[in-house]
Amino acid sequence: MNKAFAFVRGKLSVKVSLWVVFFAAIIFNIALGWFFYQARDAVRSEAVSRATQILDKTSLRVEGILNRVEVASNMTKWLVLRHPNKADSMFVYSRGMLENNPDFYNTSIAFEPYHFKERGRYFSAYTRHIGDSIRTTQGGSESYQYFYMDWYLMPKLLDKPCWTEPYIDFDVATNTSEMVTSYCQSIKDEEGKVIGVINTSLSLNWLSQTISAVKPYPNSYSIMIGRGGTYFVHPDSTKITCQSIFTQTMEHEDTAMVALGHAMQRGEEGMKHMTVNGTDSYVFYKPLGQTGCSMAIVCPESDIFGGFDRLRRTVTIIIAVGLLLMLFFFIRIITSELKPLRRLAKEAETIASGRFDVQMPDFQRVDEIGQLSHSFAGMQQSLVKYIEELKDTTSQKASIERDLQVASSIQMGMLPEKFPTRDDRDDVQLFASLTPAKEVGGDLFDFYFRDEKLFFCIGDVSGKGVPASLFMAVTRSTFRTVSAHESMPDRIVTIMNRTIADMNKNHMFVTLFVGVLDLPTGRLHYCNAGHDAPLLVGDGVGELPCDANIPVGFMPTWKYTLQEAHIFTGTTIFLFTDGLTEAEDANHAQFQMERVNDVAENALANHQHEPRQIIERMTDAVHQFVGDAEQSDDLTMMAIQYIKQQDEEVRMRKSIVLPNDVKVVPQLTDFVTEVCETMGFDDMDTMKMNVAIEEAVVNVMNYAYPAGEHGDVTVEAVTNGMRLKFTIIDSGKPFDPTVQAAVDTTLSASERPIGGLGIHLVRQIMDSINYERINGLNVLTLRKKLNNNSI
Amino acid sequence: MKITIETTNGTTTAHLEGRLDTPASTEVTPYFDQLQEHADGTVILDCTELSYIASSGLRLFLALRKVSMAKGGKVIVKNINDGIRQVFMMTGFLNMFEIQ
After folding, report:
1. ipTM
2. I want to staple B73 with a disulfide (CB 3.0 to 4.6 A). Which of A420, A496, A738, B68 is the partner?
């Protein structure tokens, strides 16, 4: 069944044909139903009028016969009364009546006993047909004492002529019997005394045949019942006189039959639709004159509607066959009409599979299919064109995407990848992450160590994508270049701003936070150029106070301010871009500073505020908040934790104060040599240490004080057994010797500049050289890690 | 700091003795100016007795080397001790001078 439905669904021709045939069938059904209903009514009324007519005719005929019987009887009575005493005449009259009425069964003129004395007790002139002849005899005898018969007694007693109930007339002479009904009337003499009775009989069989002879329909039949309901006429002759119309209703309740019986007994005329002997029939009934009898014609419905039903069957079959043929031809026609469509569908499938060069069929049709075919060919051409264009666009896009990927990896490559941890350093650990919203982004962070300082920055370029990324690259390299020569963040940012603002034709800008953390002391110098203030996560969570500086790139003349803070051991500096606070969820709600604080506080409470931990916690929180929403902005975080343990045991401390004159170098040499001896260095190490300290001190002496000005230079040597530290302090003008350009030792002699070797040697020999300006003093610190009494 | 210069067969040899620190460099600058006059030939800096050198000393060496190159001469550094050799290495001077 499902297969059949699937088949119909898959075939337009079958579907359309089925619909058409279905509606045709409905229309035929309604029209023919109405027609048949009306026709049936007409047939019924025709049947009723026909049966009524026949019934009237038959009843008229029967009444005619009965009247004739009565008239003949009256005529004979008249003749008898004319000659009442002539016995032989009675035979003539009797015979004459039968001769004049050959359809009478018999007649007898019977007299009272001894009416004719000479004839004895019995005299009855009895005439009946024997074959074609008529025989007249004297009917009374000892064995047939007629004056006791019903037919003789009834008219006498009733004193009027009457029809008897049927009875069997037994003819002794021929030994035959016949069911008859008789019209009897008494003969009275002048004195009114009954002298005899004239009996005229009709054979019920003959009457029945006469009535039944006329049939409106082949299977219809007539019945006649007497007063008591007894059948006089019935196609089943065994029922005649033996059964009444009520007999069967005794066995099987049949109210319709009883009602019919009563109606007929009452002498009513009419028509009933009822079941007779299990057959639906129409019964037409009518009384027969004064006889008290009633006749009925039973017409089976199948007879009445026989022709009609045949007609209906034939028409139904014709329509059914017609509809089937219609279905068949419709399917054929539609299928053949749709053939081009199927071909089009096939071609379309081929095109869909990627072969655009298929030759489209030209159907040479002007109907809708022709139009469709035409449009389809047009569509194919357009498709080929668009696909070509699309290919070009796609390959261009792919090339741009490749470029962007390369750009992305270049950009990521610019960022530091290795983050120092507790395992790498004992003074600071650091972690950072940068997630661009697009392939490339405008966020940046950077850090590096120079001397004993951590230089770091975080920034956010206005805008996103490629322009921002280029600006970011410029910013980052400018930071590196500038910070190589400058140790103070305000100077770094000011110079960067001047450089960037000068070449900034597109009016872009970058918010920037630059910090320099002095690792030995934990002193942080910083400058914030319009960037979000970093959080300090240590003894609680708080913002690092920041001056209101404008972002970098606006105004080349802006003087950025320097700020300073002390970072305690264990404290983490958490820096971020606005991609964190402004991260949006699907409803465009922002992450906001409160949540950043919450996460930081939570991390601190759980002692999870090491750089990597705090950034991972923050990342998780943002992901959870944002959900499936698209990342709206670049997101960058950097966390720096200061972990240096300050409580170092001092094993040795020596110092010397010298005037700022290079002539005192031999004193310095003696001091350094003494320190080295205390440390147990060999000659080689002592010489190297002498070179380093001499170079550093001479540098300070030469540059810290203006020419001719006198001042002191204090040199202090301290060791804890792990490291040897020289601190050179002067009160001259701020001078940072560490910002000198590095010496390129690969250059040839002619290309080498004469100067710059001193600080280069210091850097080569010592582990670190660090400059700080503290309380108006220049403080230069040189450190060297010790390795078993050597360097 | 003591410096002795002798010239034989077009070869000028300077014997350096003591510590060539910052004040000493100022002191011996005239000697090096003198050496530069012979820079068109071969100049040998004999460092057998030189115990120490600072960057100011290196500057004198370098200046001499530059003049010598300009004049098509040659500077040979002889017998440097290990400490000075290390300083030469750190500064790239090992590649600039012919070391014997």
Report:
1. 0.92
2. B68
**Do the beta carbons of residue A162 and residue A199 sit within 8 Å?**
no
Q: Which fold has domain A215-304?
A: Beta-Lactamase (3.30.450)
Residue A664's closest chain B neighbor by CA? B23
Rounded to the nearest integer, the mean pLDDT of chain A is 86
Which of B36, B52, B55, B64 should be substituted to probe chain A, the one whose Cβ sees the most A Cβ atoms within 10 Å? B55
Per-residue model confidence as pLDDT tens digits over A438-489: 777 788 999 999 877 899 999 998 877 788 888 888 899 899 999 888 888 9
Chain A residue set in contact with B, beta carbons under 8 Å: 662-663, 665-666, 669, 683-684, 687-688, 690-691, 694-695, 698, 743, 745-750, 752, 754-755, 757-758, 760-761, 764-765
Distance CA A547, CA A537 (A): 20
* Inter-chain residue contact A662 with B26, CB threshold 8 Å: yes
Q: A652-785: which CATH number, 3.30.565.10, 3.10.129.10, 3.30.70.3290, 3.30.310.50?
A: 3.30.565.10
What residues contact residue A662 under an 8 Å CB cut-off, 6+ apart?
Answer: A698, A701, A702, B22, B23, B26
| CB spacing of B54 vs A691 below 8 angstroms | yes
- Do the chains contact at A669 and B86, CB–CB below 8 Å? no
Question: Residue A430 is inside which H or E element, if any?
Answer: strand A428-435
Number of A:B CB contacts under 8 A?
76
Q: Which residue has the tokens 């009324």?
A: A45
CA-angle at A480, arms to A478 and A485, nearest 5°? 100
CATH superfamily of A83-207: PAS domain (3.30.450.20)
Place of tokens 């019942």: A225
How far is Cα of residue A585 from the mean position of the Cα atoms in its chain?
30
Domain extents for chain A? 2-58+307-347, 83-207, 215-304, 354-394, 418-642, 652-785
